[in-house]
Amino acid sequence: MQLEKEDWQEPGCCFRMAAASKEVEDGGEATQIREVIQGLDALLAKDQVTEASAYLEKWLLYFEARKDWASQITVYNEMMGLYRNTREREKGLTAVERGLARAREHGLSETVSGGTTFVNAATTMKAFGRVREAMPYYEQAFRAYGKKLSPEDYRFGGLFNNMALAFEELGEYKKAETYFKKAMEIMEGLYPGSILEIAVTWVNLAVLYEKWDRAEECDGCLLRALEGFHDTKVPLDAYYAFNCRKCADTFGHFGYFRVKKELSEAADRIYGGEEAG
């Protein structure tokens, strides 16, 4: 099972790129859109994905009526992540088309917000089988971020992680390894706030090495990943639950059945309103 970050937090698991979609530089009502995102996060913290979809649709209609294009872009970014996670192809690709159109209409191609929209769009295309079509958008995101951000910015970590997954899907394993390691370097510089992101990258590397006939390296990667999930500095919150659920099947695939059970149960407890043990 591949990990996508930024799914709804994307990506797609686990670099929280969608958070950057709240940073539209011009227009919009910043306070209101922050409250909308908080409401979405509250639904997702309870694993209420059906309700989250209806919630985003409602707010999109509201912002369309107000001609608030900046908030529309934010909502489209969140929709891309949500519909990737729920595997709703038509809705996901519609959000891609409309989000990219808004970004182009308002000249955001060389902004951070435009770059984030490109990342989310490309990752959604990749999730629905359009990986070659997605690659130019990752390149556009790299150019946009390069104009505005430090090379150590966490958003480059999310970009490189998703580019690595795309190269892996294309069978370009050496490039995939290179970009996973680039992502890892950035996230290591942000420790301890990036513990889960580092853990997920180790899981992704294990999957890559299995495909690349380097299976002897998989166990080492998975053990490093498990260190992250067990790190006492990691908050046991909805984001932790999200990552547990996305990574559990991969551990199971490699025969780590106890770990799969542990992570799945931790996610269920958190989504059910209990603290993970």
Short note summarizing the structure:
By secondary structure, the chain is mostly helical. 70% of the residues lie in helices and 0% in strands.
Helical percent range? over 70%
How far from one another are the termini? Answer: 25 Å
- The helix count comes to 12
Beta-strand residue fraction: under 5%
Main beta sheet strand tally, sense and closure: none
Run of helices and strands: HHHHHHHHHHHH
Morphology call: globular
Q: In terms of per-residue confidence, which ranges show pLDDT below 50 for 5 or more consecutive residues?
A: 1-28
Instruction: Please provide the count of β strands.
Output: 0
CA-atom Rg in angstroms: 18 Å
Mean pLDDT: 90
Structural class: mainly alpha
Topology summary:
Elements lengths: L29 H16 L3 H17 L3 H18 L2 H17 L6 H16 L3 H18 L5 H16 L3 H16 L6 H17 L6 H13 L7 H16 L3 H15 L6
Helix pairs in contact: 1-2, 2-3, 3-4, 3-5, 4-5, 5-6, 5-7, 6-7, 7-8, 8-9, 9-10, 9-11, 11-12
Describe it.
The chain has 277 residues and is mostly helical. The protein has twelve helices and no strands. It has helices at residues 30-45, 49-65, 69-86, 89-105, 112-127, 131-148, 154-169, 173-188, 195-211, 218-230, 238-253, 257-271. Helix 2 packs antiparallel against helix 3 (69-86), helix 4 runs antiparallel to helix 5 (112-127) and helix 8 packs antiparallel against helix 9. The longest helix has 18 residues, at 69-86. The chain is globular.
